Amino acid sequence: MTPEPTPDGPLTFSFLTLFPELLAPFASEAILGKARERGLVDVNLVNMRDYSQNKHLKVDDTPYGGGAGMVIRVDVAERALASLPPADEVILFSPAGQPFTQAVAEELAGKAHLVFLCGRYEGFDARVEGLVTRELSIGDFVMMGGEAAAACVLEAVARLRPGVLGDADSHRADSFSSGLLDYPEYTRPLEWQAQEVPEVLRGGNHAAIAEWRREQALKRTLSRRPDLLTSAPLTPQDSATLLTLGATPDDLKGWGAPPPPPPKKPKRKKKPDATPSGT
Fold first, then answer.
1. Spatial contact of 10 and 37, defined as CB atoms under 8 Å apart
2. Which of 65, 122, 144, 162 has the smallest number of CB atoms closer than 10 Å to its CB?
3. How far apart are CA 226 and CA 267, in angstroms?
4. pLDDT band at residue 80, thresholds of 50, 70 and 90?
């Protein structure tokens, strides 16, 4: 298939790894595979062993000062980086890194070339930190290497590039993109184990559907991730909805939410015109 690049060209992901075979299938299937075929995304897997400069392809060594495990050498990482074209960002996966969020994904999606260093063993020599522009963490837990984190970032960022998703607006309503958790979705069957699709979704009233979805997104966020409300772009009507869902005025103040709209004054009924008396 002939690539159909976007006007800005593809977004290139370069991954420096000791196990490129872990990322190769992930980057070749489903939506990512189609995006690569169309020239929207490019994935470059760099095996750091190719830059070991020894016959055993050894890239690590024992840590100075002693301790368990092996450490990836800084000179190996530097040679692998030098083999690549200039990058907008060189990113190291690290537990000390900036938390990876949807906002970070949106920022990275606007770049042209991203390089990621995927560690193994006890990680990289600390001097590698001087070769990168940013450190990222996908959560407070420990994994065996950076490849799984790389796969998460690849999918989260690539899907934001124009043309990658079938519906250009589909990601804007996703959880975190809107600042809230996503509203619940339904499809066939209409009824399953005594649970029916909500009536509002079957009525065809698009304004009512939009209102219901916003209320449900607020309800889910309030009950499951209220911490997100501190940074969500809330409207006065959202504040009124949150109050009906159980939030308090102090909650709204703590989230920095705007005050709800003032209650509507009841309309006064017009007095009927006096009927002229008969003569």
1. no
2. 65
3. 37
4. very high
Q: What is the mean pLDDT of residues 228-248?
A: 97
Nearest alpha carbon to residue 8 among 35, 44, 39, 45: 39
138 carries a ligand binding annotation: yes
Cα distance between residue 84 and residue 97, in whole Å = 23
Q: Are residues 123 and 216 in the same domain?
A: no
Which range of residues forms the domain containing residue 195?
Answer: 191-255
CATH code of the domain covering residue 248:
1.10.1270.20
Please check the confidence at residue 4 and state whether its pLDDT lies above 90: no
- For residue 78, give the nearest of 137, 124, 23 by alpha carbon: 124
Please provide the average confidence, as pLDDT, over all residues in the chain.
92
Q: 41 labelled as ligand-binding?
A: no
Q: What is the pTM assigned to this prediction?
A: 0.84
Query: Does the annotation place 203 within a ligand binding site?
Result: no
Residue 213 to residue 182: CA distance in whole angstroms: 8
Q: Which two tokens stand for residue 95?
A: 């537990």
Whether residue 271 is contained in a domain is answered as no
* Closest to 6 (Cα-Cα) out of 160, 113, 155, 163: 163
